[in-house]
Amino acid sequence: MERTVKLRVRVDYSTYSALKEVEEEYREVLEEAINYGLSNETTSFTRIKAGIYKSEREKHKDLPSHFIYTACEDASERLDSFQKLKKRGRAYTEKPSVRRVTVHLDDHLWKFSLDTISISTKKGRVLISPTFPKIFWRYYNTEWRIASEARFRLMKGNVVEFFIVFKRDVKPYEPKGFIPVDLNENSVSVLVDGKPTLLETNTKRITLGYEYRRKTIITGRSTKDREVRGKLKRLRERDKKVDVRRKLAKLIVKEAFESRSAIVLEDLPGRTPEHMVKDIKDKQLRLRIYRSAFSSMKNAIIEKAREFGVPVLLVNPSHTSTVCPVHGAKIVYQPDRGDAPRVGVCEKGKERWHRDVVALYNLKKRAGDVSPVPLGSKESHDPPTLSGWLRAKSLHSIMNEHKMIEMKV
Predict the structure, then answer these.
(1) Which 8-state DSSP code applies to residue 378?
(2) With b meaning 16 or more CB within 10 Å and e meaning fewer, what string describes 105-130?
(3) Distance of CA 160 to the CA centre of its chain
(4) Residue 222 in 3-state DSSP?
């Protein structure tokens, strides 16, 4: 498991100039490595290094040799990423373009101490003295360890951005139970201790709100206009959605970790936004689904689970919301003037089911849980929907607070 901490340091002119020389020659080696990989149809670090090392070493005699190694690693990663985008039809250039350069360092090129960080250059080692943020000490004073690799990037005003990588070895535990999670456009449903709960994400409101703001900004004006570009750049739709995903993932994973449970998610292979909206004609619905980022939410939960060592099970998502988990019969949903009716009735048992709740029980069942499903409970067709959870510290605290509010009412 890896985490990266960014440090910003303002350095003197001589230090910045020495690092600038390294960056310029590193860029040249990186471009040569990418061109070699493309012409020889390879993304292998070993093959790229074997193909260009001798010639690049002759060109850059004063550059520490390990910068050629790290540039080849960088090229290998860029080419591999480019090939994946190309297969998905998301590559818009003929080859990876080197726009911004972040210089990769190995353990020969940098040394760390709490006082200074030294970096190898053409003129010897330079020293920078960073101020560490709180997030650095959070990792440094726990079981995380500083990795041998690091990166730096040069900014305007003699500013160096330095990236320290922390690593931690986590072993998944043997789960004692399951916490199924169903991802939807505007909410995420979770089953904890047999109690289904819907956590409102407001993705629909955020998506449509920012779309209306974009239309207001660009109506009658060109997107090439400097003022228009500045206003569009200041919109924070992505930041808000990422914040919701991260906080929700942390709540779910912490609950699973404390109860020693496994998280059950729908396996969504190939469920790209383009695939999900291809048969939908409603423009607004297409926009909402395209920007809901179901896979991003799933990946956020999986990434946080790896950090805590929480097992994650991916199960078949087909018909999870249309089949009764008790009788195996079809659930018939009556129109309710919405895009998708939320409450339906089992054809065999006639009990009522909420679409998101029945999905939780089916996910749990497919994960291997054979415990009986409660029938006739109010939560099966009318689960509590919670909106004020973003600052909560645990799922239990949210559920208890909601229960106290109901009792007062």
Answers:
(1) G
(2) beeebbeeeeeebebbbeeeebebeb
(3) 26
(4) coil
Q: What is the mean pLDDT of residues 268-286?
A: 60
pTM: 0.70
The runs of H, that is alpha helices, within 293-334 are 294-308
177-183 and 261-266 strand pairing: parallel
For residue range 105-152, list pLDDT tens digits in order: 999 999 999 999 999 999 899 999 999 999 999 999 988 899 999 999
- The closest of 88, 84, 74, 76 to 42, measured between CA atoms, is 76
Q: How many angstroms separate the CA atoms of 105 and 116, rounded?
A: 16
Q: What is the DSSP letter of 133?
A: -
Q: How far apart, in whole angstroms, are the C-alpha atoms of residue 271 and residue 294?
A: 9
Cβ burial, residue 296 (10 Å; 0-12/13-18/19+): middle
Contact between residue 50 and residue 85 where contact means Cβ atoms under 8 Å apart: no
- Residue 406: pLDDT band (50, 70, 90) is very low
The two structure tokens encoding residue 346 = 């089992």
Q: Do residues 362 and 354 make contact, with C-beta atoms less than 8 angstroms apart?
A: no
- Burial of 304 (C-beta count, 10 Å sphere; 0-12/13-18/19+): buried
b/e per residue 182-221 (b: at least 16 CB within 10 A): bbbbbbbbbbbeebbbbbbbebbebbeebeeebeebeeee
